[in-house]
Amino acid sequence: MPLQNSLPKLALALIALVTLGCARRDSGQQVVTLWHQMRPEDRAVLESRVEAFEAEHPGVDVRPLYKETEELRSGLESAVLVGHGPDLVYGPSDPLGVYQAIGALRDLSPYFEAAEQEAFDPVALIRLPAHKDPTKSQLVFVGDRFGNHLALIYNRKFVPKPPETTVELLEIAKQNTVDEDGDGRFERYGLAWNYTEPFFLVPFLTGHGGWLFKEPRPEGAAEVPTLDTPEIIAGLRYVASLKKAQVLPRSADYEAAAALFLAGKAAMLIDGDWSWQKYLSEPGLDAAIAVLPMVSETGKPLAPMVAPKGYSMSVAVSDARAPLVAEVVKFLTNEETQRAFLKQSILPSRLALRSDPAVVDDPTMQVSLAQVERGRLMPTATEQRAVWDAMRPHYQALMAGEMTPEAAAAAMQRDAVSKIATLTSRVEPDATAGLVKLLGGVLLAGLVYVNRRTLVDFARDWRRNRFAYILVLPALAVIFLTVIFPLAYNVLLSFSNMSLQNFRDWQIVGLHNYVSLLTGGESSRFWNVFGKTLLWTVINVSLHVAIGVLLAITLNGPVRGKSLYRILLIIPWAVPAYITALTWRGMFDDQFGAVNHLLASWGIGTINWLTQEGPAFAACIIANVWLGFPFMMMIALGGLQGIPKELYEAAAIDRVSRWNQFWHITLPMLKPVLLPAITLGAVWTFNNLNVVWLVSNGGEPSDKTHILVSYVYKAVFNLYQYGYGAALSMVIFAMLLTFSVLFLGRTKATEAVA
Amino acid sequence: MASVRLRNLNKIYPDGFHAVKDVNVDIADGEFVVLVGPSGCGKSTTLRMIAGLEEPSSGDLLIGDRRVNDLEPGERDIAMVFQNYALYPHMTVRQNMEFGLKMRRTPKAEITARVNEAAEMLSITHLLDRRPKEMSGGQRQRVALGRAIVRYPAAFLFDEPLSNLDAKLRVQMRTEIAGLHQRLRATMVYVTHDQVEAMTLGDRLVLMRDGVVQQIAPPLEVYHKPANRFVATFIGSPAMNLFEGAIHNGAFRLKDIASSPVPVGSELADGTAVLGVRPEDLVLGAPDHQNFVTGVVQVVELLGHEALLHVKIGSQLVVVRSAALNSAEPGATVALAVREGRVHVFAGDEVGRRLN
Amino acid sequence: MTSDTPQREPFLLTLGRHALLLAFVAISLWPVLDVLAISLRPGNRLRTTEFELFPRDATLASYRALFTEQPFLRWLGNSLLVSTAVTVTGVALASISGYAFSRFKFVGRQTMMVSILTTQMFPATMLLLPLYLMIAKLGLVNTFVGLVLFYVATALPFCVWQMKGFYDTIPHSLEEAARIDGCSPWNAFTKVVLPLAAPGLVITALFSFMSAWSEYLIAAQVLQDRELFTLPLGLKSFQSSMSTQWGLYAAASLLVSIPVVILFMLLSRYLVSGLTLGSVKE
Ligand SMILES: Nc1ncnc2c1ncn2[C@@H]1O[C@H](COP(=O)(O)OP(=O)(O)OP(=O)(O)O)[C@@H](O)[C@H]1O
Ligand SMILES: [Mg+2]
How many domains does chain B fold into? Predict the structure, then answer.
């Protein structure tokens, strides 16, 4: 076979290419890496400013790189742990508390003289107590802009003059909620916004006099959440009353709300400054921006959260490089840079620019400025994350009409208190710590002892089966060398107290994580999610196999056009899942999704898929079955080729029915080929974070749509419980291992078929 | 061509099963030896050790004058034909036949010549460009033979090559293999559990049971002088009738049933023994014979020119082969006599060694 | 191929086959057509409130932008390089070790087989932090070698098992025949067994290719230079919280799937080659 002869050559050429591909032009340039979270439209401006900087500073190469929030954080984490990571990070100010808590940031104050600082809006420069020394204050953030604030966007075709009070808001909304064709479903809604993120709830709370935290913050203690106050309840009641007045769509996430407004199906929309250009520039849509109205009862404005965005320097930067990196920060926050961004309707952080004609003459900028002035500064405290986490499910339940404002407020408060406690708790080594260390040692020694016979056998066997050992060695080496460190690290972490409080100085604390996992307050939740995960796995894998084998058998018969069918059927596997999962979410939309449309046209009632526990879970399963059946089909198709035709001919002569042929010939013959796919398919499905996460948008509704991995992910990354997460993943590992060993043992899959 | 010699060959599988026990066989150059025995007796194992596909646990294996224990199968200069043909499905017939020669770096011209010659010999020239799956079972087996022939090996090994073919094809292929042997005069070792194949093909048979060789002899000798009770019943169809009894003064007498003594030779010692008589050596009683025993006919199978009578003697059923013309009716009582000098006497113990 | 000649079948059965296949084709294509619609829609809209397969204001602007404003071709090149390297290494390693697992009874065989599975059982998201620490320590940041190594390691367990499964269906007598024909164990494997495991090779190749082609998490740890991005990374860079460039994202997603479909078209011939058919009779 010519292919076989050319394989080694091909491999060599590839290795050469791969090695070449990473030989980067390291021509003695000073490289400054910048991980940012600029919106796509702003990235071009950033690039041009970076070029300008590089022109002024020959020999410096600034490399901006867009990173999503979690990646930005993990980059900083590794900067702390191994001194390798981005030099600069750019983003909104809210995660600063976390960055500082793990000691990821460097003080910028030596590079910004007092006079220089005067030029900035004071809230754009953020100082925090030093990581190890709370008495010292450090400049950890230099903002170049303000924003991230919500305002009201309205369609001038329906709303000539924006509402100034909440009474007017309701009035206008009511007028604009219309059922034109009288089919009982509204063609247009008065108002829409995102029901899934509590960020969108905040203006209603502040307008009624509420705030998330007790003010001022208690000295030297954690922030205290105030989510169950009369003011908060009043805010929630107002939102509920809008929902009850039916001026809002039944369900809406961010994209759905935007789609409604863009299609002229919502008269007003609440959305952030990042999105305004989109609405203003949409052809055929006469949109305008207004500040959010005043609450009629309290006389207070609906005040959105406002945050500066800006630069922080990571600890990966050495003392020697710090001045240069600071130079980059200075350049990217200077007047010229900020002026360049003005064209994007971005509010500058430099006071001098506020009177620039580009600001003064632009009505959108003026509204934006007015809204910022009414806004509340987004806290940088680490507790904010816990509070978002506590609010989200209950906000969603409130919007779905499944919770009263009072109950929602109480639940938010309760969860916030417990989550903050988790976040700020410090775990010290307990009695089991020594035990764990000791047991670890004993276990290793024991393993070696128990296996010493095997080792002897192995040495003996080496002579007889040398060929076999040589064949398996390369694969084993590649597999284990790359995973052994991460796995071992994970095992250690699972016994440790690594968390926000002990990020760098973590130590083995014993069985604490396992104990709290299996018996703690969340344990009943754990078993619930575990049950769901089992269900998820079993249903998915069975359907994958059933559909895959069915299609493969159908395709393997005498069908015209089978190669075309084959290709069309493989498509769900070929298109990246991260987009198709999202389109599935769209297809399950209550009002505009294709699935409900189809159900309705068949005369079956529509289902509110994404806002109810059962249907949301079903939606995830349907999407995942869709994603997974082609691969199984492919494997079954391959497996079918190994079945000699004579078997069927003989069976046909014996008048064996097709069903029995399938059951007694096809399936047993497919077994060796299907078994690995089923076993690993089950493992992958069990651990498939993506689909659940994307279709349910991170566990909606109200964190009820979770499987173990998404649960771990949320628990760990929202509250930084690395140790707990590691323990959970050990438990998942143990379960999967048990399953696999039992399953493989039963099916004798490891046996060679003689 | 070469001789094949097995010296104290043993095979103990890794699971501890002792499949072949101390086998000694000398196969002469050009000889056709058939390994025969019931299923699981170790025939294939023995053959596979000769081929080098199993490693002997102990003992020596010689092909020609070379000890080949440590040689790779490919270095032993043998060819093998498998029960399931084992044709390479991804190669055409020609490529299948060429493969072994190519591996041995035979010159191209010679390869072509040899393949054409073998194809001619087996009348498969028109199949040379087909793939295995496009042929019938008989054709595949022919190709498998061809693949062996082109190699001009020192010895041919066959492992039940015909057992997947239907009865008619089997007979045809059997003759062909016999013809092949006469033509090539090659050393051949042939495994089967079909005694007709064994009898018709072999210059000598090696009878095995539970890993132990029972008898090595030419087919007729095995038939007429089986070495023990097992061989006696294994070879011949219908099987030899066995009667339990005892020898007294050179004559055999049935146990528990009235019978007249059968003379077996005065040199045999007194004691329990088993008398073996082939169905064709039992004759329906006639006045001029001294009858051995009487029984009742149960079933009569008419086979055309002859008939098989199943006769009940005491609690035992015996089979008698007789001419179709002078057979009896079911239910009739018949007297049976034994052809003189055609009796086999075996020891009455487990093994049942031949005594006469 | 004889297997392609339509046998006579009851008309109803043929009809049933086509009905089933067509139904699943519709289900397969539906969400993808939705992606197509997004890619053609102007103004970065993920959702619409209309049911239209083909947007009225359809534009190819996103596709144009991919090639003119974004380094899409560069990403494509990087991805092709990485995925091909992973496929070649993965298939090579899996095909030889799967063979050993299928054919030889060596000490520790079962333990090894199960233990390579265990590496798949940890939730990947939990391993990212240590993985990044390791990459940084070993100096593998921004190298394709590191990335390829990780991809091969993650793809191998399935590939090894799959190949083992396919070898199990190939009769031993074929190798024995080859050995007698003068092959060394290695030659018997490469010249006789390997070609017969073609469907398995196709599946492992597609799987390895795909696992590198669509992988995002590990790539995001290793590659931190836009020039070195693979396609998933490039794709993801169109996405940001609440202001994703859906048009580019969808257009790129569809383009990304084209090489996969082409690869499948090329390889599926071998997937259904049916070579072992009729080789032997059990
Ligand atoms: N790999 C093995 N491990 C253990 N025992 C084996 C192995 N191969 C064969 N045996 C046993 O060795 C004995 C002899 O097997 P062999 O295949 O030689 O029988 P055979 O005489 O060829 O039978 P048949 O006529 O059924 O082919 C059988 O009992 C069989 O179960
Ligand atoms: Mg046998």
Answer: 2
